[in-house]
Amino acid sequence: LHSDSWILDAFQRIHSEESKFFIPYDLEISNQELSYIVKRSQQWRGINGERRK
């Protein structure tokens, strides 16, 4: 009925207090975290040895 509860989610977002939401100020990540993500993505190999582009 609710299609994966999107109606309930929308209702809660409209009627909840602003303090209930966690939103980072500008979505920054640290250089260390970014380096880790890049390193892991470069090392990733699929089942047949393929790489991400």
UniProtKB/TrEMBL annotation:
It comes from the Eukaryota. This is Uncharacterized protein.
